[in-house]
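Question: Send over one sample?
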Amino acid sequence: MDKQATLLFSLLARPQKLADLDMPTWDVLIRQARNADLLGRVYELVAEHQLFDAVPLPVRPHLLSARRVARRHTAMVGFELGNLLGILAKLDTPVVVLKGAAYVLAGLPAAAGRVFSDIDLMVAKEHLDEAEKLLKIQAWVASADSYDDKYYRKWMHELPPLQHLKRHTLLDLHHAILPQTARLKPDSDKLFAAAVPVDGYPNAFVLCPQDMVLHSATHLFHDDEFKHGARDLVDLDTLLRYFGKDDAFWQSLVSRGETMDLSRPLYYALRFCQRLLDTPVPELVMAQAARLGRPVGPLAWLMDKLFERALPADHPMCVDSFTPLAKWLLYLRSHYLRMPFHLLIPHLLHKAFISPINARRMEKKAENRPTIEGLIAENKAP
C-alpha cells in the first residue's frame, strides 16, 4: 500500500508531525479520518500535544466540529447506559459493558474523541430471556426478520439487535463474545469471573484489561465488517499503550489469550498495531504471541496482504485494485470461522438469494401501505 493509503495511521502514530502538514495533506487527512470516524481522535491528539496553534485556520472548524460530535456521542452513551443498567438491575446478576461503551464507563483514554454506532452489553446466558423481557417493557425491541431472528437466537452469541422505539439507539445484548458455532471457544464464565466492577453502578462491570484487549482483537480480526476497521485498530493501540504501562499486563496477556483460545486474533492485533501504529509491544511478548498464534507457512504472508488492505480507512484514497478481493476473501473467512460448512452453505445461500427477495417484498408492502395523509386526501370532501 502507498503512503497516502496509510497516511491516517502514520499521523496517529506520530501526532507531532501534525504540526508540519501543508493544506493538501490536511485535506487528505480530514477526508480519511472522517470516513474512519477518527476525526475526533485527531482533535484529541492535537489538543494533547498542544498543536492547535500550528493547525491552519481553515482546518480548525473541522476539528472543533468533530470534538462536539464526539462529546455528544459520549454524553448520549452515558445517558443510555444509566437507563439500561437501571432496567437490568432487577436481574440480580452482573451486567458487563463491552467495547466503546465500556471505555466511556471506565473512563479510559480510548473513549476520547470516539463516536459510537451502538451499545454492547453482556449477561449470563441463563438471564438472557429475562433481560430481553425487561428491555421490551421499556421499548427496546428486535427488528430482525423471522429467519435472522431464529438464526441469532439459535446460533449466535447475542440476541438480534435491539432498538429503542423512541430514541432509535441500537443495543447488542450478548451472552458470549463469539458465536456458539465458532471454531474458537472463549469461556464466557471466565470472562465474568475476571470482570471488574465499576464504581457508582452496583450491577455494572467491564472486562479486565487483558480480556478487554482480547475482545477488541477478536471483534476486529474474527469479523466480516471492516467499515470501522481503522477505528477498531486505533482502539486496540490506545488500550495497549494505556494498560501496557503496567509490566504485569504484558506478562499475563499472551497466557490469557491462550487460556481463552484467542491466541490467533491476539497475534494479529499485536502485529498490525505494531506495523501500522508503531504500538510499543515488548519484543518478548510479540515473539510469544507469534509462537502461539501466527499462521503457518504461506498463509501468514497472505493474511498480511489481506489485512493491510482491509484495515485502512474506508475511503477511495485507501483502496488499490486488490482491496475489493481482499475484503471479499476476509468476508468468506469470517463465515468459515463462524460456523461449520453444514450450517454455513445454507446460510450463505439464504442471505444471497432469499433475503433480498424478502426485503424487496417488504419494501413493496411499505410502498403500497396507505398513509394517514393519503387517507385524509381520499376522504376529503369535494
